[in-house]
Every structure is written in structure tokens, then in C-alpha cells.
């Protein structure tokens, strides 16, 4: 291990190295020391002995799971942890936190949203859009052959402050290299096109989705529990990575609906023109979407499927148009999954709506940023002094262990206009002095 470390470590002239493996803190380690993988949280529960820790089973390789304790309880509701794709450091030494094994760390970014109250939001970092569970993630090309050793605390302590996020929420190392998956064009967090297909049982949600994604029609009926698909398409000259969630319509499988709605950016609300009740069910579903999203302008289309079944039709086009009008002119399509009628059109419409929404949000953000800059300049002007931003150090604890070594030491807070998110990692690594506790780290 020491040899391995030596190979990768560049020492400054003042560095010392002895056979007892004492590393100088001035040693430099490349980011390839972090073995980062895409994981899927399959199970998540609260730690029984502390308030702050989740214990998650994370799939990191085709069903191989590791258990990770993370101090995310104050920041992420448990239902949002479930089925979440996360970036996990998988070469940390296994630890026990209050008796529970922690075999890795979930990478999370933190941002101070209110300097006065020191209010912090923490979000697990999203893996690259088209990455798959278990996939290794890298900061740079050159280091891909390097199999990192089990991470020593000092190595982590060196690497952690150099991690950060940029304005697009991409993970960066020393502001130079982006965290990417195998697909190097795929940024760590690109535009998010998560589309959720909702509707009553048997209306054709799966048939529409499979027809759109794979171009085939499913004749048989197999009630869905939950299926997720990915597809890349180009819309208006822009490459879009879609994640499509085909949900359950049959009542006994709909428990997760709320969770899906929370995570979705756009929605296909599907009924069947041969089933009057299926349209009625959509009214409540739309209400649920608006309530959960807490917004009137959720990207959405109304889809009347099975329009090829003219003889069995009980709902006319006018019925669909009426509902679309009642909903504030939500785009309406009559589709046939069997003949692929209007299927692409319905999905692309949702993608366009998501794009418009994101563009509006980013304009809003820009305006706010400019406003803030202006205010700052005015404040500086009025003080007529050489006011320099004073560097503040906050210390904050995440995790359930009252351990002085588990502190989050924020770096100097830059002006809010440049603060794009510091970086945090919450979970089971102890400093050499601590016997328990989860270490939290920030990066700017
Ligand atoms: N004729 C015709 N049949 C369709 C169409 N779409 C779906 N079907 C049939 O309707 C049945 C149900 O389709 P699914 O796509 O499984 O319905 P679902 O909405 O996913 O059902 P759940 O998963 O139970 O919610 C299947 O037998 C499909 O072949 C269509 O456009 N035309
Ligand atoms: Mg289905």
C-alpha cells in the first residue's frame, strides 16, 4: 500500500516520509485516489441510536450492496433517499458508527443559504445523467487505470477541501476537472429531463413508453410496478437525456406515486378513450401533482390513448379538449401506442415545456445575481471604505455524534454572487483521533 501511495504522491521539498509512513500534510494526492461510483439507495432507515444518521443499503454493482451511514437526516426526507442515485466513495476504510457498519460515503454538496443564521442546505450530488449503477466516475482521463488503495484519513483530508461545485452544480476538483462518467460528454449534472408517466391501470402507459423508447408495441398486459427508461433525443438542436418513469396504475402498486411525482420534472397524464373512469382518475392525479409540486405551471401533457379502438371508444376528442381547457390549455394528444400515433409528439412536448421552465428559472437566477451584485456594489460605495470581505469560518456538525473531530469547517465564505455550493461529504470516516462519528467536509 505504501508503495502504491508513493507512486501517486508528489511531495513538496519540505515533505517528510519515513518507513513508519508518516506523511507530510504538504503531500499532494491526485483525485484518482477517490474511488467514486454511482450507487442506488435500495433501502434506507434511521439509525436507532442517533438522530442524524441514515443507514442506507446502496447498490454499487448489479445487486452488490454496501451499507453506508450518512448524516443526511436533517437535510433529506427519508422518502427522497429511497431509490436515489448517489455518488459513493467506495474505497474508504470500513467504520462503525454507533455500532452500525459504514462502508463508504455519500458525496453531498452544501451551501450556506443565509450567512446571518448560518443556514445550510445539503444535497447529495447527482451522478452523471447517463451513468449506470456501479459505474466508476473520474475527474480526469489520465488516472483511469489507477486502482486506488483503501483511503487513509490523511489522503481524504487532503483531497476533500479541493472538491467543489460550480454554477451548474457540476462537481469539480480544484476548479479544473469535472467529475464525469464513462461518457465524457456527459456532465456531472446536466439538464434534468425526468418524465413521469401517470394514469389508471391498463390505459397504455407502458405501451406508450416502450413504443417511444424502443419503438416496439407490447400486445400483452402485464401490470407495472415501476419501470425506468433512459433515452437520448435531440429537441430543437439540443441533446437531451431523458429519464422516463413508467408508474403503476393498478391500485395496490401506487404507494410510491408521491415519491415519483416529487422527483419528476414533467408528466404525461394518460387515460384511455375506451375507459371513462380513467379520465376521471386523472383529475385527482393532476391535483396531486400540482399539490406536491406546489406550482401551477408544471410541464405536463394530457394523453388520450388507444385512439385506434374506434369501436370501443366512449370518450370523444371533444372530451379531451374540454379537460385540457379546464386545466388551463394543457397540451392534449390522442395517441395510439399500437400505431405509434402522436407518441413521440407527446413526449417531446413535455421535454420542450421542461426546457422552457428551466430557461425561465435560469433567467430569474441571473436577474437575482445581477441584483445582488448591484446591491453589493452600492453597499461598498456607501461605506466608502476599503471593505474587503472578511473571511469567516463556521463550524457545524452533521451526523449524530457529538464528536469534536466531526466538524464541518467551512472555507472562507466568498461573496454570495460567487457562492455556488460548497461541498460536503457525510458519512462514516473518523479522524484518527475519533473512535466514532461521521466526518463532514466542505469544499468551495
Ligand atoms: N389497441 C390498443 N391497445 C393498447 C394501446 N395501448 C395499450 N394497449 C393495450 O392495453 C393493455 C394495457 O397496456 P399497458 O401499457 O400495459 O397499460 P398500463 O397503463 O401500463 O397498465 P399498468 O401498468 O397496470 O398501469 C395492453 O394489452 C396493451 O397491449 C393502444 O394504443 N391501442
Ligand atoms: Mg404499465
From TrEMBL:
Sequence ranges assigned to domain TRNA-binding in this UniProt record: 30-138
GO BP, sorted A to Z: protein-containing complex assembly; regulation of establishment of cell polarity; signal transduction
Name of protein: Ras-related protein RSR1
EC number: 3.6.5.2
Membrane topology reported for the UniProt record: Lipid-anchor
Organism listed in the record: Candida oxycetoniae
Organism superkingdom: Eukaryota
CDD domains (alphabetical): RSR1
